[in-house]
């Protein structure tokens, strides 16, 4: 698993990358009340806004961590955005992307470096 400076996690799954936000990010946001996910089939570019989340404290944009195509979204979050607070590192993933440049994963932090950044 890799981590971004924007508090996203990226988990390889076959030839796809599953993307969500970290526990730290979910705690900082507070109670999440709304999620807008991208459409399946959307081509995204690294650092392009692709998810909007709103909490009782703030609204945040989630940026695409890689170039590629969104191949699946977690529709359950639209109905139950609070799930992000309950299980941000597990069932509350946002989307799966088929990267066009998988080597972009190499730019991100491993867990030890991420934990040092947030401590």
Automatic annotation (TrEMBL):
Cofactor: (R)-lipoate
Record PTM N6-lipoyllysine, positions in chain: 57
Cofactor note: Binds 1 lipoyl cofactor covalently.
Origin: domain of life: Bacteria
Presence of keyword NADP: no
InterPro entries: 2-oxoA_DH_lipoyl-BS (IPR003016), Biotin_lipoyl (IPR000089), GCV_H (IPR002930), GCV_H/Fam206 (IPR033753), GCV_H_sub (IPR017453), Single_hybrid_motif (IPR011053)
Domain Lipoyl-binding: start-end pairs: 16-98
One annotated Gene Ontology cellular component of this protein: glycine cleavage complex
GO aspect biological process, one term: protein lipoylation
DNA-binding as UniProt keyword: no
Subunit and partners: The glycine cleavage system is composed of four proteins: P, T, L and H.
Family: Belongs to the GcvH family.
Role according to the record: The glycine cleavage system catalyzes the degradation of glycine. The H protein shuttles the methylamine group of glycine from the P protein to the T protein.
Name used for this protein in its record: Glycine cleavage system H protein
Organism expressing this protein natively: Pseudooceanicola sediminis
């Amino acid at each position: 698993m890799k981590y971004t400076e924007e508090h996203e996690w990226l988990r390889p799954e076959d030839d796809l990358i599953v993307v969500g936000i970290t526990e730290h990010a979910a705690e900082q946001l507070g109670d999440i009340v709304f999620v807008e996910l991208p459409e399946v089939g959307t081509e995204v570019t690294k650092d392009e806004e692709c998810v909007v989340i709103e909490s009782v404290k703030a609204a945040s944009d989630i940026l695409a961590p890689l170039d590629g195509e969104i191949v699946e979204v977690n529709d359950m979050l639209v109905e139950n955005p609070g799930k992000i607070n309950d299980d941000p590192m597990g069932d509350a993933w946002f989307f799966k992307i088929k990267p066009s440049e998988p080597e972009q994963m190499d730019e991100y932090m491993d867990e030890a470096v991420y934990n040092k950044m947030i401590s």
